[in-house]
Amino acid sequence: MALERTFSIIKPDATRRNLTGKVNALLEAGGLRIVAQKRLRLSTAQAEAFYGVHKDRPFFRSLVDFMTSGPIVAQVLEGENAVARNREIMGATNPANAAEGTIRKVFAESIEANSAHGSDSAENAAIEIAFFFSGIDIVG
Ligand code: ADP
Ligand code: MG
């Protein structure tokens, strides 16, 4: 499989606990390269747009409140099979179900405050990367 890119977020629960470097160490140890990265604070409108696919889920309002509660670190990750690889490194959505050594198993506080986001398909990765970054920001 060719080199692929995916989109990642270090969520507010992790930035609050100053875990950016520790999360990045797991991404890099897992074979992914951070080819773009920026720390920002999402507005309510931006968080609603980013998570628009979940707008009818019962946890949507709480998720938007959480994602706007502090800084996030938005990232583009590059590597072989990057979309699937990043999902493996993150672990299951619910940290109780996440495999040992995954970001969510090691760091997540709850199913909502689960420290990391990762695109679920190459198609969504392209959409999510374009939501946060211009081509000129990404240095492979
Ligand atoms: P993933 O982030 O693993 O792709 P989803 O796309 O299903 O998971 O959900 C997006 C985010 O919404 C999760 O990462 C988590 O922060 C939050 N979330 C998902 N399910 C729940 C839930 N049952 N209760 C609260 N928050 C949830
Ligand atoms: Mg998802």
How would you describe the overall organization of this protein?
The chain has helices at 12-16, 20-29, 44-50, 60-67, 82-90, 103-107, 122-132; strands at residues 3-10, 33-40, 72-80, 116-118. By secondary structure, it is an alpha+beta fold. It is built from seven helices and four strands, in the order βααβααβααβα. The longest helix has 11 residues, at 122-132. The protein has a four-stranded antiparallel sheet with strand order 2-3-1-4. The two termini are 17 Å apart. Adenosine-5'-diphosphate (ADP) binds at residues 54, 59, 63, 93, 111-112, 114, 117, 120. The site of adenosine-5'-diphosphate (ADP) has 9 residues, from loops.
Please describe the topology of this protein:
Elements: E1 3-10, H1 12-16, H2 20-29, E2 33-40, H3 44-50, H4 60-67, E3 72-80, H5 82-90, H6 103-107, E4 116-118, H7 122-132
Antiparallel strand pairs: 1-3, 1-4, 2-3
List segments where confidence is low: pLDDT < 50 over at least 5 consecutive residues.
none
Mean pLDDT: 98
* Spatial order of the strands forming the largest sheet: 2-3-1-4
> How much of the sequence is in beta strands?
15-25%
Bound ligand species = adenosine-5'-diphosphate, magnesium ion
Helix content: 25-40%
Radius of gyration: 14 Å
Q: What's the helix-strand series?
A: EHHEHHEHHEH
Q: What separation lies between the terminal Cα atoms?
A: 17 Å
Number of helices: 7
Structural class: alpha+beta
Number of strands: 4
Biggest sheet features? 4 strands, antiparallel
Judging from the principal axes of the Cα atoms, what is the shape?
Answer: globular
